[in-house]
């Protein structure tokens, strides 16, 4: 049986063979601990870490000393929010459409006594600027806004938001797990104090990420774990050399190929959307039509339960939303936040196109969706009553 067409690149990406090749020596013969300073095995590992740190810093517009390696973006988000909240007086604010790695931290911070502002978003998914202004005026220590949403792909104006936060003396953090390697990202030029990164979203290995902690935030953040003072005292623990080398290689490749790949993916995405809306009535685009990731398409298909639709398309690997909430029976909170209510929020499909996606695969996936939707609608009395040609 052929493998399903993979269109879930927001959840994770396959390891690029070039990345694996860069990692292999550090998974085999170059196995030293980077903290071993008395012999060549340790020196070799430390050098690999230093070079990787420099490559990552260059890719995101930061200094090498700003890079704090973590196990992924979830840990980086935890370090950013807990670290600032515990080290700086004031409130923390973030939009209601953030990843659970932000929203769950907000809940935990509230239990510790931190004031939290959950910011509403507009129907297109962009954060409400009125809500931002109100939160900033309420003694804010940290504003955290995801660069690009993991479900609906909406790109937030993080440079402008960072400037607004700084004008009130607050720090700005962004979760850039989805935008890294897909959108321009330069921490210094964009005024970003803290940036969360992940390797496995850019064809790198799972289990490695980073938090960019620029000088503006360094004195205002506290560590979450202790035990040796690694990573400038912000994240103790033995560094996974092979994963870090792979992370740096993956990011360097993604940044080098970003513009051409973004153009290709946007073309494929628009072709997919045109195929679907031409063949199917009552298809609604979720999120901003322009300010969205080039490989993202999130649509609601009226009168079709997304879960039922997916079971009819075993040859296409899709999702209805974030992989981190896939076990929940609740509708997507992101879709609810932009106004999709009740059954509307349960009819959404998230297409995540990637580096290995071809036009032929997009056409095959479109055919599968159209056939499955038409089959399910033919069985629906509600659709028979309300279809446009009824």
Structure, briefly:
The protein is of the alpha/beta class. Helices cover 41% and strands 13% of the residues.
Please write out the topology.
Layout: E1 5-6, H1 17-27, H2 40-60, E2 67-70, H3 73-87, E3 91-95, H4 100-111, E4 116-119, H5 129-136, E5 140-144, H6 158-167, E6 171-175, H7 187-190, E7 194-198, E8 209-213, H8 215-218, H9 241-279, E9 283-285, E10 296-301, H10 306-311, E11 316-317, H11 333-337, E12 348-352, H12 359-378, H13 381-386
Parallel strand pairs: 1-11, 3-4, 3-5, 5-6, 6-7
Antiparallel strand pairs: 2-8, 7-8, 9-10, 10-12
Helix pairs in contact: 1-9, 2-9, 3-4, 9-12
CATH architectural arrangement of the largest domain: 3-Layer(aba) Sandwich
Number of domains: 2
User: Under CATH, the topology of the largest domain is which?
Assistant: Aspartate Aminotransferase, domain 2
Major sheet attributes? 7 strands, mixed
DSSP helix fraction: 40-55%
* Helix segment tally: 13
CATH superfamily of the largest domain: Type I PLP-dependent aspartate aminotransferase-like (Major domain)
For the largest beta sheet, what order do the strands appear in spatially?
Answer: 2-8-7-6-5-3-4
Shape: globular
As a whole number of angstroms, the C-alpha radius of gyration is 22 Å
Into which percentage range does the β-strand content fall? Answer: 5-15%
Q: Mean pLDDT score, rounded?
A: 95
């Amino acid at each position: 049986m052929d493998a399903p067409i993979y269109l879930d690149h927001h959840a994770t990406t396959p390891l690029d063979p070039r990345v694996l090749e860069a990692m292999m020596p550090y998974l085999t013969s170059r196995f030293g601990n980077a903290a071993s300073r008395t012999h060549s095995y340790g020196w070799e590992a430390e050098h690999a870490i230093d070079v990787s740190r420099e490559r990552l810093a260059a890719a995101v517009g930061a200094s090498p000393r700003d890079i704090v390696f973590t196990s992924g973006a979830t840990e980086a988000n935890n370090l950013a929010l807990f670290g600032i909240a515990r080290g700086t007086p004031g409130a923390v604010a973030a939009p209601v459409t953030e990843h659970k790695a932000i929203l769950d931290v907000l809940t935990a911070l509230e239990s510790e006594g931190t004031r939290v502002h959950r910011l509403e978003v507009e129907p297109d998914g962009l954060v409400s600027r009125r809500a931002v202004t109100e939160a900033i005026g309420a003694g804010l220590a940290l504003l955290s806004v995801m660069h690009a949403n993991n479900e609906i792909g909406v790109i937030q104006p993080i440079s402008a938001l960072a400037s607004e936060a700084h004008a009130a003396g607050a720090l700005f953090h962004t979760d850039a797990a989805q935008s890294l390697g897909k959108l321009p990202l330069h921490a210094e030029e964009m005024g970003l104090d803290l940036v969360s990164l992940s390797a496995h979203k850019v064809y790198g290995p799972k289990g490695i990420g980073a938090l960019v902690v620029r000088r503006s935030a360094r004195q205002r953040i506290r560590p979450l774990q202790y035990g040796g003072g690694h990573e400038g005292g912000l994240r103790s623990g033995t560094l996974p050399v092979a994963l870090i080398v792979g992370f740096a290689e993956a990011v360097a490749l993604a940044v080098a190929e970003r513009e051409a790949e973004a153009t290709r993916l946007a073309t494929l995405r628009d072709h997919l959307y045109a195929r679907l809306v031409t063949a199917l009535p009552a298809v609604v685009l979720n999120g901003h039509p322009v300010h969205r990731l080039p490989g993202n398409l999130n649509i609601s298909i009226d009168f079709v339960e997304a879960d039922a639709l997916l079971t009819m398309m075993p040859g296409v690997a899709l999702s209805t939303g974030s992989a981190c909430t896939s076990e929940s029976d609740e509708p997507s909170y992101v879709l609810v936040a932009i106004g999709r209510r009740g059954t509307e929020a349960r009819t959404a499909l998230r297409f995540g196109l990637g580096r290995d996606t071809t036009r032929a695969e997009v056409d095959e996936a479109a055919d599968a969706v159209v056939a499955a939707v038409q089959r399910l609608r033919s069985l629906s009395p509600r659709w028979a009553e309300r279809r446009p040609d009824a």
